[in-house]
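Appendix B. One record, verbatim.
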Amino acid sequence: MPTELPSPYVPPPYPYDRLIPIREVAASHDGGAVDLSIGSPSDAPPPAVVAALGSSDTERGYPPSIGTLEFREAASSWLNLVAGTSIGPADVAATVGSKEVVAGMPHWLKLRRPELDTVLFPAISYPSYGMGADLANCRSVAVPVDDEWRIDLDAIDPADAARALCLWVNTPGNPAGAIDDLEAAAAWGRTHGVPVLSDECYIEFTWDGPARSILEHGTDGVLAVHSLSKRSNLAGARAGFYAGDTELVHFLSEVRKHSGFMPPGPVQAAAVVAYQDQTHVEAQREVYRNRLERMREILGSIGVDAPMPSGGFYLWAPAPDGDAWALTERLARDGGAVVSPGEFYGPQGSGHVRIAVVQSDEALELIASRLGA
């Protein structure tokens, strides 16, 4: 009998490509579609940051993969300021935004611990946590969340914990805006010998209490992942960092160095300027908070009660009768708005839609006028 060869990997459809027909319906409105389906900022980044992109004189040489000392000093000082952590530049390494490190982490961690094969992540979450496991040929295990969309650490099967390369947490969470107990997550990881990776890219849009980082509870066995995409409206520049456990930071930095991962020099220079300024972030916080409240009013006018999230700039809205696709289609047809069905973020979210309030106030009012709000 001939040996049967394994089937080649076929990636699943990209979730947001499923919205192409929805976008076409929304675009039929006079004035076009208002895209609230992804968290892509539309507001301008600070002028000083844009100026730094074109004036750093760093474009000719190769930038350091871990980030320049100035970048790492700015990043560590910023996190210490906003979250009360106690890290230094040696605890930080640069990333090309945050999605690449989220998706790539299982592959790199499996090089470190080849006997392990499981990635744990919240059952309602950004798709890239599970996709990163798939791309590394690992098991992806969704950890249940509670009634407030927070990860339930007690629900993790001990057999899965024994095989785990890592546990992802995300606070404030995407899509539901929940705030996890990061101290408990860090303690769980240390007890089970599992690295805990905390995606904190919405940290400065925390509405319920102060900004939180897992690094407040020590760095042993934990990493925090951050990005300038949301904080400073720099999604197109691709700049972020990971920080925390000394051994993990060093291992990842060496692997990534060999792979050629490095934010461009001009981007690192601009990031320094961005991390050194809080004024633009405070202004953006007010913009997003006002947009969340206004969008809640607009949805309320059509009978959809979307609660204010504890953090982030998404509304996680329950669909009437639990039919998220019907609400998605209604908002496109009647309001010209494109939103994301909750199933994109896990089966438990199938009765909700996620609405990113990233478009201008004028765009939100255009939706309101179409809906008669």
